[in-house]
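Journal club prep, notes for RB
We'll compare a predicted complex against what the paper describes. Inputs for the KG4 case:
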Amino acid sequence: MKKDQWIMGLETSCDETAVAIIKNGREIAANIVASQIESHKRFGGVVPEIASRHHVEQITIVIEEALNQANLSFSDLDGIAVTEGPGLVGALLIGVNAAKALAFAHNIPLVPIHHIAGHIYANQLVTELKFPLLSLVVSGGHTEIVYMKEHGHFEVIGETRDDAAGEAYDKVARTLNLPYPGGPHIDRLAQGGKDTLDLPRAWLEEGSYDFSFSGLKSAVINTVHNAEQRGEVIAPEDLAASFQASVIDVLVKKIIRATAEYEVKQVLLAGGVAANKGLRMALEKAFSEKSGIELVIPPLNLCTDNAAMIAAAGSIMFEKGIRADLSLNANPGLDIEIYN
Ligand code: KG4
Ligand code: ZN
């Protein structure tokens, strides 16, 4: 009988200190996330220095908690997967250095992981991935459509030319005086509002899978300011619903069009904005009318940053023989196509 494979994942690219342990690439044995959101809230966004300091304070505690939850010790681990980039350099460095120290001290192979590859592999904790596939990645820092012909191969067929979807959500939320991160608040407001404002949709050139959200963001901000100057009040629910309708319309139509050009078995949703109720519902509806393609959406706790997704990707990369040595450094601008 084949021995079980145990991979520990470490994720510290932004404002969550996360450690997880995954069995055979698919089963969660431990999944700990120490969120720093409360510390960043009063600044309206993530403050890099504060993020680094929290990671330093939390990382050892979270590693121990994960081992306790899984009832394992370091000697049971086959590999340590860590987010190498992209992200905040000072935040990434804490995870990378912790992983290197553990790998050295316990003689465990070190596996470097791209953060977005992790988001995509969150779906492997839901079901087995079937190739070729397309993934719609929508996070705070990234919005892209990724084509995968096999495990570990990532081809970006379209990406945002300015703001990421999550970034647009957070900026619009700020205009409405909602706390950071604004995405979930806009999502909640949108459920109770109507798409009454005629906001723009950036389709870009014919055939392009790229995105642009900065025009939409500016349109929302201008709409709010113009109304204020005229002494009018726009219901925040309707503003949220109209903004959300515009974002979802573009995301859903572009991924549906991509499935007409690329013959795929699955479409995976990935990234923090994948937690958006409106987007999940719109995709489910669109794909229920399209037979032959399986839509996979991670549960809410695996959409936003976590380490289970890093360990899931780590399991595949470990099998592919991808390793880092102790010269591994944080790479804030890491390219996902580097694996191909
Ligand atoms: O993937 P993630 O946790 O971190 C990055 O890698 O960027 O994504 C965080 C982003 C934030 O912009 C947050 O506002 C957004 O995901 N987000 C949402 C929702 N939940 C989180 N956006 C829209 N609707 C949500 N329900
Ligand atoms: Zn993320």
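Talking point for the session: Residues 14, 139-141, 166, 169-170, 181-184, 187, 271-273, 275-276, 304-305 surround KG4 (ligand 1) (CB under 6 Å).
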